[in-house]
Design brief:
This protein is of the alpha/beta class. It has helices at 13-25, 41-56, 71-80, 94-102, 108-121, and strands at residues 4-10, 32-36, 61-65, 86-90. It contains 5 helices and 4 strands; from the N terminus they run E-H-E-H-E-H-E-H-H. Strands 2-1-3-4 form a 4-stranded parallel beta sheet, sandwiched between helices. Helix 1 (13-25) links the parallel strand 1 and strand 2 (32-36). Helix 1 (13-25) packs across helix 4 (94-102). The longest helix is centred in the middle third of the chain and has 16 residues, at 41-56.
Length: 138
């Protein structure tokens, strides 16, 4: 069985990223969302996450958090200390969510290894290609 997916972020980023992934990958993009609101703080964010994790029991869970060192990521990291079925990747982006949805990996560590370079490669400086003079002619 594929690992369950949880997206965590400050504000609505996780929710909106999932909605964008669904536009591209359809119903394959399935995840739970933890949106940290300004009043939640660490304890409120931890509680939101714990409620979801309790539903999953001992199933493998991959958490994609928006910012390394941010409250959502810290809350996820703290849960890792008490649950050995969780892995966390920081740097939530659309490419990670789409690839997690489309991946057939059933082992959580295999999925993490597959996703890490994808997430990193999704961040790139885009440059225009140089065209030869004859490529300008129509």
């Amino acid at each position: 069985m594929k690992p369950k997916l949880i997206l965590m972020s400050h504000g609505k980023m996780a929710y909106e990223t999932l909605q964008s992934a669904k536009m591209i990958a359809g119903d394959l993009a399935e995840a739970e969302i933890v949106s940290m609101e300004e009043h939640d703080g660490l304890s409120g964010t931890q509680q939101k996450l714990a409620d979801i994790l309790d539903k999953f029991g001992n199933e493998q869970v991959l958490i994609l958090a928006d910012l390394k060192g941010g409250t959502p990521c810290n809350a996820a990291m703290m849960e890792m200390g008490t649950r050995n079925n969780i892995r966390v990747i920081s740097g939530l982006n659309l490419a990670l969510v789409i690839e997690a949805a489309l991946s057939s990996a059933e082992d959580i560590d295999e999925l993490v290894s597959y996703l890490l370079p994808i997430g990193k490669d999704a961040v790139a400086a885009i440059e225009l290609p140089e065209l030869d003079d004859d490529e300008y002619e129509e």
